[in-house]
Design goal:
By secondary structure, the chain is an alpha/beta fold. The chain folds into two domains: 210 residues, no CATH class; 237 residues, Glycosidases (TIM Barrel, Alpha-Beta Barrel), CATH 3.20.20. 29% of the residues lie in helices and 13% in strands. Strands 3-4-6-7-8-9-10-11 form an eight-stranded mixed barrel. β3, α9 and β4 form a beta-alpha-beta unit. α1 packs parallel to α8 and α3 packs across α5. The relative contact order is 0.11.
Length: 471
């Protein structure tokens, strides 16, 4: 019986809020938003466009009441956060906009903007009641006022007489504009409160209809992706070692390692002729999304550098938002401080197909936006950012290189008998084997070739990359 009631409640919520049906499900960082539930896409949409915040990075509290301040904040952000954009401080006035809005209220700027623009006027007693639940008719009034109080035909809801007189034109408009529909029995339920999940759906509909927002993160203008112009005849494979060379320029051999290789004898590795190591610095978990430092990171960095090898690093990301990717990048920068890193700092995002994976089914737009956010942080710190992926990932839209041409690309492609890769696009480094044997490492290790002359395309003022330029 409880299950039936829950289902009925969900259907009622759908009828009350959804008029522009979501065309796709989407991932969020919130552990309390199941991707299969009806409000998953609206919540993800609001997170993508920074229209509604969770209570923290992992909780949205979808069943909690939507408050007046949260809706004002969403409308404010839809307008581009004009006070912040104009450089105006929240404390520009000596007094708060309403008697019950403290000067340190987290939504102060939004509430001040809403008052100044006429979207809200508050109550007769001079209060705004920012943290009070907002009713459906109040939502209609805020949206209607923000749209300039457009006229609309009478709504056909059966409980129209229950709508407060001051809200009747707004309810008519909200119904006609398909921002808020009625219940399955024809009622509008104007005095009912709204959950945060229902509020996310209303905000999504409003943003799509009147602000032209679409699913996914905004990306820069696409650019032509450079083609693969390497001469396959110049690749040379050492049949005895399985190491690959490119007989032009100053290509170098290297490996990438993580805790999977456990303890490494770096003196013996260096003696094999490996010139560089790409070291995993850490990873984000694929279930709860917590960040972990690779337990062998410091040992691998110190060991490789002490034996004359160059080092780069990679972070195994499971970011679902650009904010999470930035979090990964900033923490990674802290870990890098003790070391002289001269190879790239890499964003390595790989989908996990496990049933409990938070990133399962994540779209390429999200991954690309996360890559851009990560690389920007790394670039601003003076390091050389890089992205990583396989032909399948690129060809199937899992990583859109047309938006990432400011950064070099690390190709992962294991070909039959280590034949030259048929990858269509340009790459700066190629991970050509996952089953290499290198003295000093117990078990298998990834083998790479760096086509170093290509680094001359990127001019960074941070760590010294001059040794990577063509000789």
């Amino acid at each position: 019986m409880k299950k039936s009631k829950a289902l009925a409640a969900g259907l009622t919520a759908l009828a009350l809020t959804l008029s522009l049906a979501p065309i796709q499900a989407a991932n969020t960082t919130y552990l309390d938003v199941d991707r299969s539930i009806w409000y998953a896409t609206p919540v993800a949409f609001c997170q993508q466009h920074l229209l509604m915040d969770g209570v923290d990075s992992s909780s949205f509290l979808p069943e909690e009441p939507l408050t007046r301040a949260v809706l004002a904040e969403a409308l404010y952000r839809l307008e581009g956060s004009p006070l912040e954009a104009a450089g105006e401080e929240n404390n520009q006035e000596e007094t708060a906009p309403f008697a019950d809005v403290d000067m340190d209220h987290p939504n102060l700027a939004a509430i001040r903007w809403a008052r100044d623009s006429g979207v809200v006027s508050g109550y007769e007693d001079g209060t705004f009641r920012p943290d009070a639940p907002i009713t459906r008719e109040e939502i209609a009034v805020l949206l209607w006022t923000n749209r300039g109080q457009e006229q609309a035909d009478q709504a056909p809801c059966t409980d129209r007489d229950a709508v407060s007189q001051w809200a009747v034109p707004a309810v008519d408009w909200a119904y006609g504009a398909k921002m808020m529909s009625g219940n399955t029995d024809g009622t509008f339920l104007p005095r009912n409160n709204t959950t945060r999940a229902e509020g996310a759906t209303i905000v999504m509909n409003y943003a799509r209809e009147f602000y032209g927002m679409t699913y996914g993160y905004p990306l820069p203008a696409p650019r032509t992706v450079r083609s693969n112009t390497y001469n396959n005849d110049l690749y040379s494979l050492d049949e005895e070692t399985g190491y690959l060379s490119y007989l032009s320029g100053s290509s170098t051999r290297g490996i990438d390692v993580s805790a999977h290789q456990k303890e490494i004898d770096w003196q013996r590795v260096a003696a094999t002729g490996m010139r560089f190591a790409m070291v995993r610095a850490g990873y984000r978990g694929y279930t709860r999304g917590t960040i972990q430092k690779d337990e062998y990171f410091d040992a691998n960095m110190s060991g490789a550098l002490a034996n004359g090898m160059e080092v780069g690093v990679y972070f195994f990301s499971q970011a679902l938002t650009p904010a999470e990717a930035e979090e990964e990048a900033y923490l990674l920068l802290e870990w890098l401080e003790p070391y002289h890193v001269t190879y790239p700092v890499v964003f390595d995002w790989e989908e996990q197909d496990k049933e409990d994976s938070r990133t399962q089914g994540c779209d390429g737009n999200t991954v690309t936006a996360c890559a851009l956010a990560f690389c920007k942080v790394i670039e601003d710190a003076g390091y050389l950012p890089m992205t990583y992926g396989s032909p399948r990932k690129v060809y199937n839209g899992g990583l859109a290189l047309e938006y990432l041409q400011d950064y070099p690309f690390w190709l992962a492609h294991y070909t039959i008998d280590t034949a030259p890769t048929s990858f269509r696009y340009h790459y700066s480094m190629w991970q050509y084997s996952s089953s290499g044997a290198v003295d000093g490492i117990e078990g298998r290790v990834d083998l790479n070739i760096c086509l170093s002359p290509d680094w001359s395309r990127w001019d960074y003022t941070g760590p010294d990359y001059s040794w990577l330029m063509p000789r």
